Amino acid sequence: MGTVLTRDALVAERKKLKAAGKKIVFTNGCFDIIHRGHVDYLTKARALGDALIVGVNSDASVRRLKGPSRPVVQEDDRAFVLAGLAAVDFACIFDEDTPYDLIKAVVPDILVKGGDWAIENVVGKDVVEAAGGSVQTISFVEGRSTTNIIKKISEQ
Prior knowledge:
This protein is α/β, with parallel strands linked by helices. The chain has helices at residues 7-19, 36-46, 59-66, 75-83, 100-106, 125-130, 146-154, and strands at 3-4, 24-29, 51-57, 90-94, 110-114, 134-138. A six-stranded parallel β-sheet has the order 1-4-3-2-5-6.
């Protein structure tokens, strides 16, 4: 089971992992209402390295990005559930609209986003590549999304 860490604690943990020669993978998102697509994506991301760090948008950040009715699940619960997944080693909540500052602090070896992102548009690409890392995308499980789940519930 993974751990939810503050940014400072995550940076300290990253230093230990780097000293041990571990390859660190980073991804981020809202992860509101965890579903099969999330688990599949995170499992594939984790397979790319030795440890997976997940940046989790804060509640305020999700509201700014998705609207006033989101998130459905509060940030502490989303981070706790993510950290409980076998694929996730560390989760860290960030309040900015993008994870750029968190990526600059952690400097992962591999930065991962969903297949709906063009690699040249991935936030933090410059930081990771400047440090010798890479950026990769992973395809989503078709038809699986939090928006679809919310829509189905609202139709009941």
